[in-house]
Amino acid sequence: METLRKLLQTFFTILTNSFVLFPWTKNIYQGPLKILCSPGLNCYSCPASTTYCPLGAIQQLLLGVRFSIETGSYYFSSYVFGTIGIIASLTGRLTCGWLCPFGLLQELLYKIPSRRKFQVAQPLRYIKYFMLVCLVILFPLMLTDQWGIGKPWFCKFICPAGTLEAGIPMIILQPDLRPTLGYLFYNKLFWMFWFLIWSIYSSRPFCKTTCPLGAFYGLFNRISIFQLHLNKQRCTDCGACRSVCPMDIQFNKNVNSSECILCLRCMTEACHYDAISIHCAGLPLSLIPRKPRTPKTPQLQPDHS
Amino acid sequence: MTNKLSKKKLHILYRFIPLTISLVLFLIGVALNEPQRVLEQAWNICLDCIGIG
Question: A3, A193, A211, A272 - which has most CB atoms within 10 Å?
Fold first, then answer.
């Protein structure tokens, strides 16, 4: 199952970044596919990107709401909110675990051996809600300049995916942009390296602490069509689910937590008692292959007394 | 038993409420011609997004 997930993550990364002509055009893709939403975090200013980033689009529409009202267009980004709402209602944070290119990158970085691996402190996980409410929605909408136009705060000051996928490649492709580099770019470069290095030592630190898209999808985890279920009669509270969870969740203590990315590792790799199952609209999906397992039994130590 | 069944059905049904609301939002956006605006934005390099703007 983990191999299938990695393959699907790679497939979606390639699919949403499949404009291979960018080294020749030296520009971003400008075709009709950009009307489609990338389900994961994937900057639309990436030269290879073929879809739009929901976070970037929301901010760009919200920062110009006043201007659009004045011109009689009434753009409230309901199209983008509707699109990510549909994705979230169907899958919850399954998208983070299976389709997000930046999630894949963090998982690959975490495979780099290091002396110690660290867990992300619980309070840091609330930062992503601040990012979603303030930097993605309120600040672009309310903090406007003299012409009534706001800024895409999250993209402008934080988004490491934007720096990695768009900032660096565009500076390489378009030398004219280089003289314009300043504090903003170096600030974003700092955040990019911060999250990339942190990803070597902690599992998915950006998803856990900062990603506003993950925060939004997570709100739907308890009401989405795809959900994990716990059979309390079978659960022995052994904690095996936590040991494999990339988001450090003990599933039986927090069923369908807003942090769960539905990678299914707890179900397919950890639980020896088949206590976890995946349901679609309340119906169990029994086609998911599980490794044949035998319950772990405590190792008996030889008695030397 | 019947009560339990109807509760389960209700539980399944309420999962479709956010999906319906999202679909309505999506259609409102389409009616307001927002996809065209999104497309126009996505065709331009967002200098803010890459840390230059």
Answer: A211
